[in-house]
Amino acid sequence: MNVRPAVDQALVEMIDAVFADYRNKRPVGAPVERDTQLWQRLDDLGLVRLTGAEQHGGSGAGWPEAAELLAAAVRHGVRIPLAEHDLLACWLLEAAGIPVDDAVRTVCMLTKQGHATEVPWAATADRVVVVWRADGQYRVVDVAAGELAITPGTNLIGEPRDEVTVDPASLPGTPITLALVTQLRLKSGLVRAIQVCAALDRILQLCVEHVTSRIQFGRPLAKFQAVQNLVSDVACEAALARAATEAALNVAVVNGWSAPELDFLVAVARSCAGHAATVVVRNAHQVHGAIGTTREHRLHEYTRAALAWRSEFGSMQYWDDQVTDAAMHASAGGLWGLITG
């Protein structure tokens, strides 16, 4: 099996330091906003367009580096549209041969009626990359956010999730292939799997720190078998979700997002991450008790994030159905090969 290259540890440490410094200056529960100073700092470090082609102003890195960037942002509770901007919107423009400038972007897929819901960061973005299907062909256009009808909304953790409305007939549009639209769907799905896994890993860390430091009846909570069972389940579910997500990411990177089994692997990653979130969130709040429900404790920043992200860019039901459909299509003779790759 081909293995993707390791990420430069110096880059990982630099990314972590940037987010840690930012987080230390913000109180727990601060409102979500696109911090322009942080964005500029990340831009100066080449992290805003981390995976963009160097000839188009990017840093020329890959998805492994981008996954580390996303995970670091999650660990430190930093809410910023890095994935939507770099991995989705700007990538799609580059792939379609459309110039990319320094504007902050997000992406959305319109219905036939010209409507899109729960579009991340649309109300705070400078431009929106809009995708729609007309006359049997997909099209894409880079539109100034002010030219769209945008109704602001939020998800469980206060991140912008907005409604976008526009008449597709009024948009010029550049034709794109179904393969690019499929990649957009898979990349969007994998982005959220990466973020959910990072949240689950942070929740596990908080659980371990709590049960080893909290004394009850003269001994640490970690010494109680019931607590041990709760934490071990958290660890197992987080590890399963991470393994499934890393498997999908590895195949995507090694095969240039064109492997025939990639649809299945991304669906498995999203399904595992979504179902893991249920167990991890429930157990983590049981382990922390009353303190874990307070706004001052950071646990909710990760539990609510995991629950919010698992339903974005495709619901749990959607991804579960993708797994089921792939298994049914493979039939008994091909199912084992589908699972093992």
From TrEMBL:
Cofactor names: FAD
The UniProt record lists the keyword Flavoprotein: yes
Superkingdom of origin: Bacteria
Matches recorded under Gene3D superfamilies: Acyl-CoA dehydrogenase/oxidase, N-terminal domain, Butyryl-CoA Dehydrogenase, subunit A, domain 3
GO molecular-function term, one example from the UniProt record: acyl-CoA dehydrogenase activity
Key words, A-Z: FAD, Flavoprotein, Oxidoreductase
Domain Acyl-CoA dehydrogenase/oxidase C-terminal: 192-317
Keyword Oxidoreductase included in the entry's annotation: yes
Protein family (similarity comment): Belongs to the acyl-CoA dehydrogenase family.
Name of the protein this chain belongs to: Acyl-CoA dehydrogenase
Upper taxonomic lineage: Bacteria, Bacillati, Actinomycetota, Actinomycetes, Mycobacteriales
